[in-house]
Amino acid sequence: MINRHVAIPGMRRTDEWESLVGRVVDVHLDNDLHRRGMVEDVMPDSSGLWIAAQGSCSREFVDKASGYTVWTDPWTLL
């Protein structure tokens, strides 16, 4: 994990993962920032998504059932 969650003004949690392809999001687990990255693909039922590989971080699947939450700026949801 990277660090404790610090509220960034304007960031909102969303369960509408299907609209996030191509967007940069913050992924949290147990209120800790797990990773920030670009959403590469999303499961059709929004149960999980893939964060694109970046630098030394490989492509990663995160799923709602494991307790991950996704935060993004409100403009992403328009």
Largest sheet, in brief, is: 7 strands, antiparallel
What overall geometry do the principal axes of the alpha carbons give? globular
Q: Return residue spans where pLDDT drops below 50 for at least 5 consecutive residues.
A: none
Number of helical elements: 0
The count of β-strands is 7
User: What portion of residues is helical?
Assistant: under 10%
Quickly give the CATH architecture. Roll
H/E series, N to C?
EEEEEEE
The quaternary organization reads as single chain
* CATH class category name: Mainly Beta
Q: Please tell me the overall pLDDT.
A: 86
Using only CA atoms, what is the Rg? Answer: 11 Å
Total number of domains: 1
User: Under CATH, the topology is which?
Assistant: SH3 type barrels
Q: What percent of residues are in strands? A: 35-45%
N-to-C CA distance: 29 Å
Could you characterize what this model shows?
The chain has 78 residues and is an all-beta fold. It has a single domain, classed as Roll (SH3 type barrels). Helices cover 0% and strands 45% of the residues. It contains no helices and 7 strands. Strands 1, 2, 3, 4, 5, 6 and 7 form a 7-stranded antiparallel beta sheet that branches. The chain is globular. The model has no long low-confidence stretch (mean pLDDT 86).
